[in-house]
Amino acid sequence: QVQLVESGGGLVQAGGSLRLSCAASGSRFSIYTMGWYRQAPGKQRELVAAITRSGTSTNYADSVKGRFTISRDNVKNTVSLQMNSLAPEDTAVYYCTAKCRPPYSCDDYWGQGTQVTVSS
Q1: 81 Cβ partners below 8 Å, 6+ apart?
Q2: Spatial separation of the C-alpha atoms in residues 11 and 4, rounded to whole Å
Q3: What pairs with residue 33 in β-bridges?
Q4: DSSP 3-state assignment of 77?
Q5: Residue 87 in contact with residue 94, Cβ under 8 Å?
Q6: Where does the pLDDT of residue 101 fall: very low under 50, low under 70, confident under 90, or very high at 90 and above?
Q7: Which of 18, 81, 91, 115 is the most buried (most CB within 10 A)?
Q8: CA–CA gap between residue 46 and residue 30 (Å, rounded)
Q9: Whole-number pLDDT of residue 27
């Protein structure tokens, strides 16, 4: 079992930066594709960024490309999301995820979420 604990959310002015971190407990962190989702009030949850097991490949939502960077440390069992040039539309609860993909057989996990609020 994997437990994910996010930190780093908060209130920031438009144009500012925040760095979200997610600490994973449990074993086999490196087998999971890690990602960040967000959900704004009244909107569906959406994928923000994801990173492969080795960290060599990433993908981003179009809305955050060039502003957000996802990274992971398979020694420290952490994944981070550096968010720059934040805008009010980035306001949401951000969730860290650990997703299991072939050839592994395991469960997917979600963190409890951390609030990011961007003021205009």
Answers
A1: 19, 20, 36, 48, 49, 68, 69, 70, 94
A2: 22
A3: 99
A4: coil
A5: no
A6: confident
A7: 81
A8: 23
A9: 73
